[in-house]
Amino acid sequence: MIKRKTIGFFIDWVENPYQCSLYSGIKDRAKEKNVNLLAFVGGAIESPRRHEQLRNTIYKIVNKDNIDGLVISSGSVCRFVNEEQFNQYLKNFDQLPIVSIGQKVKNIHSILIENKTGLYKMIIHLIRDHGYKNIAFISGPKGNFDAEIRFRIYMETLAEFNIPYNEELIYPGDFTPQSGIQAVRSLLNQRRHKIDVILAANDDMACGAIEELQRRNIPIPKEFAVVGFDDQTSSKIINPPLSTIRQPIYETGSKALDIICALIDNEELPIEIYLETEPVIRESCGCNPESMSQNSVCITPLEDFEIDDKEPEILLNRLEKLAETIQNNVLNQTPNQPDFEPQYIQIEDIDEILHALFSSFHKNDHAPFLSALKIQLYKTSSFSRKKEIMWQIFISVLRGSILPFLSLPKRELAENILHKARLLIDDYSEREYLLKALKEEQAYQIFRDIGEHIITLESMEDVLDVLGMNFPQLGILSCYLSLYEGKDKESLQYTNSKLLFAISPKGRVKIGREGISFPTRMLFPSGIIPNEHAYSLIVESIFFGKNELGIILFEPGAQKSFTSEIMRRLLLNSALKGAAFIQQIQNQATNLTKTNKELQTTLHTLQATQKSLVETKKMAALGGLVAGIAHEINTPLGIGVTAASHLAKETQELILKIETNDLKKSELIKYLTTANEASSMILANLKRSHELIKSFKGIAVDQSSEEKREFNLKSYIQDILLSLRPKLKKVNHTIIIDCPEDIMLISYPGAFSQIITNLILNSLIHAFENEERGIIEINIKSENDEIIFTYLDNGKGIEQ
Question: Is the pTM of this model over 0.90?
Fold first, then answer.
């Protein structure tokens, strides 16, 4: 068997653009290094948001038994805790090598962002190039490493330019878009201080600020400039494009994987590694970059390249050199374009286009060049924004490379051809965008159809069967679902789990109706996941309400789009959580049936005992108590029967709606809520009945037996009072028991019960007469191995 390293990765969300890029970096590098990756998606620890606190439970099962090393996206997972709290938290994993991303931790290898260079240059740009003085700052969470450094750089740079620090321009954010929205509302509605630019400690908050400013119809950057930090995807596509500080997010994930693997192999590495940042100037700060302009492309001149347009064959003979020069010029422009891949345009592609261009010159016709360009555009299966930018840059470079060597008539023809080429690229890009939108709609329809099908199902097995059949459409390569079984009373952790569903890249795994039990700390049963290739799985906790249900591990396929990825995960999680909840309801129903049968047996025994006691003159008085206790038991039993009847009625209505295909999601949710409430009510009342019966059985047995046994005195007195509850409910008297918890007697409990019962019943009849309220005191203390018993009603009584 191949033994691969298994790396754990703590991440709060994978839908967030920053985390998505970070996860992609670590996942791709893990695949290259042939190591397993388990991404534990569990939210931010100590989050004020309740749903994230529930998701945190997935981190608790991480240990040296299921991973060899741990990478933590500390800047996001630990953004709500300070350094001391984070250090304490990491002690839970002190047996593992750890790499922290985004937050410095003592004695832990950390990958950090060199915040100062990029942010310092950006603030200088805002001050010197734009003349901004009133710079508002949306800070990150208190205690967060990057957030505090960025705030310090902000203050130091203002001081360097003699700009006074103004607390009214500072808003405490939490790295979420919502805090950016709240910052704008606070700055404009409450503080009302003059603002030139809003500088946010990350892009999410900056985009939130832009959203709120646009909602108020405030022009950006004319009235307010906005700047962020990170250079996420959102910063490039928002309007206006966001000026920001770029940090190498994808590279950070890849670097983290290299470091953790080296630490596992006991290699010596620096405790801290810093990655550089740089400012990215776009329109939101007030600049107007001309990245797409024809005149903005810098062209390297062709050496000794003189052309007489009367002899174009001279140029054709030197196309190879021209193609190389054009490619170099394109590559010189595209490093400023994020995620550009040079392989999108090759020398042979340029050579074919150049031949077609000069054919168009020769024939005085656009068709040859435009046809050749179409062929190159159609060669790729998808046409992303970065490819469009690359081809537009190519047209600009081509224009600058050939126009100087053409006569005026040919130059006019070239301009006309190249203009049509730009329109062709725009048209192709627009159609690709519409096709992408159509695919998104088709994906949504698939998710909707599967979701509606699942809603109609009544068993977990049916839900899992439907998911298993549709996983290829959902783009899920593998999935493993387990529910918790045993819970340790001391640690309150689930020690065992049962695998109920498994599908690998090879297909559905047969595991039987009973499932496969395994220790929870292992995450999945040994041998269940194929070992031929390294796997990359997302691990999440399954919960419903406050109830922890189990674990889900799944491996998504290639991400077709950000939106479809979100829909895929939402459908998968909601379906499996619903399936797990159905299973839990079925288990509760089974337990209720079992408990009900036991209770009925106990009740029959009680009724038989009652009949025997009534027929015995010695226990005639106890017969009355039996009738009273039976009446007392009847109340919770009646409530339980009513709840069960209501649940049965609701179930029949649900089945009818399923059969008529008339079930709505809201009605299913309402039914599940009703079922949960009814189950809780039945269990509570059955438990109450059980306690009454248990108490009475003990008293009844003792009064009919003359055997000596050991018993706890205070507990026994409380059981006697419980058996007298039907009598005590008719009066408003108070009974006070003052007895140590640890007094144990070896005596005849039946006689003791008879004495206490007679004393209390006599007091109820004779002691209080017409008084509405009275006090009965039972005081017991132990002195010199003797028990002193004092009984008082309304201050009068006996001592023994």
Answer: no
